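Thread: quick sanity check before group meeting

JM: Hey all, I'm pulling together slides for Thursday and realized we never actually wrote out the predicted structure for the chain we discussed last week. Dropping the sequence here so it's in one place. If anyone has concerns about the input, flag it before I start.
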Amino acid sequence: MNSFICALSGQTPIPDPVALPTGQICSKKLLLTKLHETSNRNPFQPDAPPIDESQLLSLVADSSKNNLIVPPRNPCQNSIPSILQTLSSEYDALVLELFDTRKTLQETKEELTHALYQNDAAVRVIARVVMERDMARKELAQWKVVDRSSELTQVGGETAATSSSTTNKRKRLSNEEPAMVQAEYHEMNENDETKKVEVTSGIPDAIKKELKDRWTVLSSERKAKTKGADGYAAFEDIQSFSAEKKTYHKTSAKGILAMIGERGGDGQSDRHDKIITSSTDKQLTIYDWENAKVEHKFSAKVVAGGASLLDCAGDTVAMVDSNGGLKVLVGSKFVAIGGKDDDEDIALDHVVGVKVHPTGRHIFVAEKSGQIHLFELNGDDKITMTQATSWSGIEDTSDDVTCTSIGLHPDGLILAIGRSDGKIGLWDLNTEKLATTLAMPNEAESSPITVIDFSEKGVHLASVDDRGNVSVWDLRKQKSMVSMSVPEGVSCVSFCPIGKYFAYGTLKGQVIVTVVKDWDKKTIIGDDDDNDGAISGLLWGKDAKSMVVTSTTSRIVKFWGHSSND
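JM (edit): ok, ran it. Output follows.
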């Protein structure tokens, strides 16, 4: 009795046996399936020539009764050795199959790794090409503007010069001027002689050197802020804060519209922590936090136009009133530049933010139009303020995008521009170029950025839009770490000294503190019935053991923390 065994599956009998040119006998169905998978390659001899169905030889058994193919009986495993032999064979087969599977898995992993690497490289190349394209468009637009201005100068002649000398009393930089690279000519009349003076819009080299020198010092000091001291406040300590209320503004003050603080850091032990407040009584008050006393009171005659329009660094305090007037206090001396209603050479209009550079001698002012002005302070006894440069912080002006807020990195070389389309542009003041733009993935839900604040470590940036969405960005990865929706709206934010805790004040008078990277861990500072209007200022104390809070509807300054008796 004849019996065929399939060389592929080991089955017997075979319902459709065929013979290969190389001599093996297989099931025709299984063999055709295998040939289809391997492109007609011989499964037993891969190096042999390809075969097709026409080369297969069908085998037919004798149809007589005596020659029928009968499947063999199953082996009788009636002894322990036979059972062990069967199990050993099955185990060997499983091990071999597992080896092949692992080998295939490793090859698949390598292919996937190469594919991901190629995809990442392609993304980087595309980003580079897009950046070069944008730079080329920008330079082309600048050349067009320069060519147009030179043509007008040639055609106008003396008439154009005379007209320019009478209309340049209020110099205002147009949105159409390119950012920080263009040189233009203005006609000036001095001693009855008209002469041409070149005004460059780039940051002067001397100022840039001061900014970089200060950056070198601050960036090295910032590394020491990455870890808190042994006595740094725990989250439970913040939860048990109690308030001490103080009033040092006049009774006529109906609220404090802006509050900013300055800490004495390493190398500045001769200067104590101080708090500067601007209230509706038109007073600018400087409070010595460490010694718990009012250090100075100044009659500013105006009040800050908002929480983002007051800033300080060292002994320099800058404030912008509701008319766009810039007032700068250096020590006990005021210097001012008029607003939109004053007849000044430099007029500011719709100011949305002011920042004092850590040098204490340079001030950045942002207008709604996107113009960024850099002012420099000079002199000791007689303080003078001059405009060093001005540029457009928003490149895509064709989409009616406006500037809504600004922020300055603690090291002083990155200027953040909040925009009406919900994006944040980060300008590198060293290269004078837009380094990157931060944007949420869902641009359809973007709203104007109203608040920008950097952590003192310099690696995180917090932003708030006018819908009450708070986002915290990781500047190293240029990605959003978290986005929190606050229905009450948010008016100000603040990181603790080492960036461990993050606090934000709402428009309804609440202060909420959360743990960075553990955002669901939150606590509310204050009583539930504390509803003092919008929070106008948040300032952390040393080691996050205290906090100062002000609001727009109260002249009370709340010092949160633990009393010495606790």
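AS: nice. The two ends are 102 Å apart (CA to CA). The CA atoms of residues 1 and 67 lie 6 Å apart.
JM: adding both to the slides.
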